[in-house]
């Protein structure tokens, strides 16, 4: 079970809801992924088409926990404003703190993320910051009281997978709150790898929404997360330099 | 009265629209969950009926859209 704040989840796959080409495909992808946590962004309503169909309206909100993000914020003040708007919907008290520090890499600004987390924790939010794979920042945020840390595997939308497993492993080892690997996941092997490293969950979006067959990829990601978690719990064999035969060395007829 | 809603200036009938609730009705949003901010102050749904809108107000109406 994945525990965030006081809530428990069976699924360790968190799914983003952006960039799906079609709401029907998206609904099916969400269904087969068996995810229980969905991320959303907060944006201005399009006044020229206010009734435009929206994915949220299709969801049975009893089955899913909403994790709005503060995407679009470039400083703590903007992130806090977006978080408060999200909470005022009455639909959620979790927030993914995402403060982008650079438009090309979309890497998060650690100082502004920190400030936003501090304010939002004081206001009673369940706070999940999206961060770089910075070991010390993860530690400091944890000390501050965040409910999970979400280090990126690689920059958002790149699909490059885990570029620094060493750092992620250390973040996971020292964490006392869930570690959710967020951003940069490209394929099922990346999700499985994150889970094998001991991550408590994986958050991905483009890897599913941008796949040729998003529904099939959603299922693949579900299985990858489950396989990676099982592998982690089972405990893998050590990596060796030389071969170690799996058949008995005694009683060979050729000797 | 002139309001600035989501960055656009809109001219609305001040007799028909006196509260945030009236304003949302006039926009015909259907079942959508929206959050309203009036002059930088975020409103809970319960406050819509009692919150007036006045000439010169800046209103933001936001909702949840797909995002990662």
TrEMBL record, chain A:
Write down a Pfam family by its short name. Answer: ThiG
**Summary of the function given for this chain in its UniProt record:** Catalyzes the rearrangement of 1-deoxy-D-xylulose 5-phosphate (DXP) to produce the thiazole phosphate moiety of thiamine. Sulfur is provided by the thiocarboxylate moiety of the carrier protein ThiS. In vitro, sulfur can be provided by H(2)S.
Q: What is the protein's name according to its record?
A: Thiazole synthase
Domain spans labelled Thiazole synthase ThiG: 4-248
Q: Which GO terms describe its molecular function?
A: thiazole synthase activity
Indicate the enzyme's highest-level EC class: transferase
- The residue stretches assigned to a coiled coil in this entry are none
Superkingdom field: Bacteria
Q: In which pathway does it act?
A: Cofactor biosynthesis; thiamine diphosphate biosynthesis
InterPro entries according to UniProt: Aldolase_TIM, Thiazole_synthase_ThiG, ThiG
Kindly indicate whether the keyword Cytoplasm belongs to this entry: yes
* Quaternary structure and partners: Homotetramer. Forms heterodimers with either ThiH or ThiS.
**Which GO biological process categories is it annotated with?**
thiamine diphosphate biosynthetic process
Q: List the keywords (alphabetical).
A: Cytoplasm, Schiff base, Thiamine biosynthesis, Transferase
**Which family is this protein grouped under?**
Belongs to the ThiG family.
Q: Which GO CC annotations does the UniProt entry carry?
A: cytoplasm
Q: Where in the cell is it found?
A: Cytoplasm
* Main location per the UniProt record: cytoplasm
Return the EC number: 2.8.1.10
The active site annotation covers: 96
The record lists the catalysed reaction(s) as: [ThiS sulfur-carrier protein]-C-terminal-Gly-aminoethanethioate + 2-iminoacetate + 1-deoxy-D-xylulose 5-phosphate = [ThiS sulfur-carrier protein]-C-terminal Gly-Gly + 2-[(2R,5Z)-2-carboxy-4-methylthiazol-5(2H)-ylidene]ethyl phosphate + 2 H2O + H(+)
Q: Where does 1-deoxy-D-xylulose 5-phosphate bind?
A: 157, 183-184, 205-206
Automatic annotation (TrEMBL), chain B:
Pfam families recorded? ThiS (PF02597)
Quote the InterPro entries the UniProt record gives. Beta-grasp_dom_sf (IPR012675), Mopterin_synth/thiamin_S_b (IPR016155), Thi_S (IPR010035), ThiS/MoaD-like (IPR003749)
* Protein origin, superkingdom: Bacteria
Q: What is this protein called?
A: Sulfur carrier protein ThiS
> What's the gene?
thiS
């Amino acid at each position: 079970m994945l525990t965030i704040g006081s809530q428990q989840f069976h699924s360790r796959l968190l799914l983003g809801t952006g960039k799906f080409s079609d709401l029907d495909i998206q609904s099916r992808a969400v269904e087969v992924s068996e995810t229980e946590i969905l991320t959303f962004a907060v944006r201005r309503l399009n006044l020229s088409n206010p009734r435009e169909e929206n994915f949220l309206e299709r969801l049975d909100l009893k089955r899913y926990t909403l994790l709005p993000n503060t995407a679009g914020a470039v400083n703590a003040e903007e992130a806090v404003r977006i978080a408060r708007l999200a909470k005022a919907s009455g639909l959620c008290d979790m927030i993914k703190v995402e403060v982008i520090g650079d438009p090309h890499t979309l890497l998060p600004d650690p100082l502004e993320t920190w400030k936003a987390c501090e304010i939002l924790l004081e206001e009673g939010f369940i706070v999940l910051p999206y961060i770089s794979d910075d070991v010390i920042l993860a530690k400091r945020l944890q000390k501050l009281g965040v409910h999970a840390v979400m280090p990126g595997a690689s920059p958002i939308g790149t699909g490059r997978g885990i570029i620094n497993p060493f750092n992620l492993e250390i973040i996971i080892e020292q964490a006392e709150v869930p570690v959710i690997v967020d951003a940069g996941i490209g394929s099922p092997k990346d999700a499985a790898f994150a889970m094998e490293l001991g991550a408590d969950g994986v958050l991905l979006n483009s890897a599913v929404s941008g796949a040729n067959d998003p529904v099939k990829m959603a299922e693949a990601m579900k299985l990858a997360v489950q396989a990676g978690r099982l592998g982690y719990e089972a405990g893998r064999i050590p990596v060796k330099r030389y071969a170690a035969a799996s058949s008995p060395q005694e009683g060979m007829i050729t000797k | 009265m002139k309001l600035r809603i989501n960055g656009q200036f809109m001219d609305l009938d001040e007799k028909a629209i006196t509260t945030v609730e009236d304003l949302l009705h006039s926009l015909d949003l259907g079942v959508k969950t929206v959050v309203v901010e009036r002059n930088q102050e975020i409103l809970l749904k319960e406050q819509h009926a009692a919150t007036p809108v006045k000439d010169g107000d800046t209103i933001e109406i936001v909702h949840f859209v797909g995002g990662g």
